[in-house]
């Protein structure tokens, strides 16, 4: 079977797609909150459910599965009655957590400047419409 010719644009699209997929997954609201909550050490499903305001059981379950599939969470099942399940960050998720802390620190340092820029922008638009 002849191989299809791939031009430079197609190569970039093929290489960029997995990166976009990873960023979409880890940048999701629930993923970030789960990673932050699990950074303190092994955590149980019910602890996550209580600590993450607004997440449904179904969304928590789906997000945990995705994070486990992506190698960001390790799920450990203990043979007890009832079964006990713990979730723990993997090494790559701990590295991601450090990046999230840097981003949070950046946001804290610059929130006043961002707020002032928004006020100035809105005032300028209002004056122009006025």
UniProtKB/TrEMBL annotation:
<keyword id="KW-0238">DNA-binding</keyword>
<dbReference type="InterPro" id="IPR036388">
    <property type="entry name" value="WH-like_DNA-bd_sf"/>
</dbReference>
<keyword id="KW-0804">Transcription</keyword>
<keyword id="KW-0805">Transcription regulation</keyword>
<dbReference type="Pfam" id="PF01638">
    <property type="entry name" value="HxlR"/>
</dbReference>
<dbReference type="InterPro" id="IPR036390">
    <property type="entry name" value="WH_DNA-bd_sf"/>
</dbReference>
<dbReference type="InterPro" id="IPR002577">
    <property type="entry name" value="HTH_HxlR"/>
</dbReference>
<feature type="domain" description="HTH hxlR-type">
    <location>
        <begin position="17"/>
        <end position="115"/>
    </location>
</feature>
<protein>
    <submittedName>
        <fullName>Winged helix-turn-helix transcriptional regulator</fullName>
    </submittedName>
</protein>
């Amino acid at each position: 079977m002849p191989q299809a010719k791939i031009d430079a644009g197609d190569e970039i699209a093929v290489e960029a797609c997995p990166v976009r997929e990873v960023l979409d997954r880890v940048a999701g609201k629930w993923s970030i909150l789960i990673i932050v909550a699990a950074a303190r050490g092994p955590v149980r499903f019910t602890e996550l459910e209580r600590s993450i305001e607004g997440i449904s059981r179904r969304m928590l379950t789906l997000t945990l599965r995705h994070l486990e599939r992506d190698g960001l969470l390790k799920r450990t099942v203990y043979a007890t009655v009832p079964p006990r399940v713990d979730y723990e960050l993997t090494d790559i998720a701990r590295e991601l957590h450090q990046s999230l802390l840097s981003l949070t620190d950046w946001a804290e340092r610059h929130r006043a400047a961002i707020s002032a820029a928004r006020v100035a922008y809105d005032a300028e638009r209002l004056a122009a419409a006025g």
